Amino acid sequence: MLIDTHCHLDFKDFDSDRDIVLKRSRDNGVGFIINVGSSMEGTARSVQLAGDNESIYAAIGIHPHEADRVSENDIKVFQGFLEKPKVVALGEIGLDYYKNISSGENQRKLFRRLLEIAKGAGLPLIIHNRDANSDMMNILKEVIGKRASGVMHCFSGDEAFLKECLDMGLFISFTCNITYKNAERLRGVAKSVPMDRLLLETDAPFLAPQEFRGKRNEPMRVKYAAEEIARIKGLSFEEVARITTDNAKVLFKLGQ
Ligand code: NI
To answer: Among candidates 135, 172, 168, which has minimal Cα distance to 157?
Structure first.
């Protein structure tokens, strides 16, 4: 069994065949899926999907891209989602200085606010970080402390940032982009991640594996990330599946 710890089945990309995609994922050994909210609307849909499907859990979050348009009232509504069943994480939240769609100031403000909420609720974090390593670590330490429960999703940092994340107690998650021809550096970093801190995800509809690159990704393709990690680590596919599944169950308290 594999777990796709991060995908966006709520996106309209799946409107025409969501049930088929879900069936395919089950048929291909994906036992659980965490559907990750990335906006107010997406979080509402994520909670709904978890309510409607036994194998789906919800993460509630507001992506840093949304930071410029989040209102005080949104935050109030957002806190209401904490009461919903099968909410297992707060995310995705974070900082994105690569695309900079919202201002840095608003991103930091929103990130702090959502971290406070996660802390109050005792939920693990699903963190999005692009080109914001030092602000990321400073804010995490300020709001959460030296140790944090959560995952750095779609890891793209270097060895130094990896060490900081591991020291903090975070899990590290890789998507199918680890299969890309030009991902040599990322594969090198993945080699340094201890197996007991490693998670797998698709980030579907994004980041389809090399042989489907440019197409829509979907949860059943999390096996491509597992195969690549097995190659990198010199382990069997089964071992990678077992360990990463256990890790996800522990972090997100799935199936309890
Ligand atoms: Ni995502």
So the answer is: 172
User: pTM above 0.85?
Assistant: yes
Count other Cβ atoms within 10 Å, centred on residue 156: 18
Query: From the centroid of its chain, how far is CA 210?
Result: 20
Task: Compute the distance from residue 141 Cα to the ligand 1 centre, in Å.
Answer: 23
Ligand 1 centroid distance, CA of 234 (Å): 28
Rounded CA gap, 98 and 100, in Å? 6
Cα(8) to ligand 1 centroid in Å equals: 7
Question: According to the model, what pLDDT value does residue 256 have?
Answer: 65
For 88-117, letters b (16+ CB in 10 Å) and e give bbbbbbbbbeeeeebeeeebbebbebbbeb
Q: How far is the CA of 242 from the centre of ligand 1 (A)?
A: 23
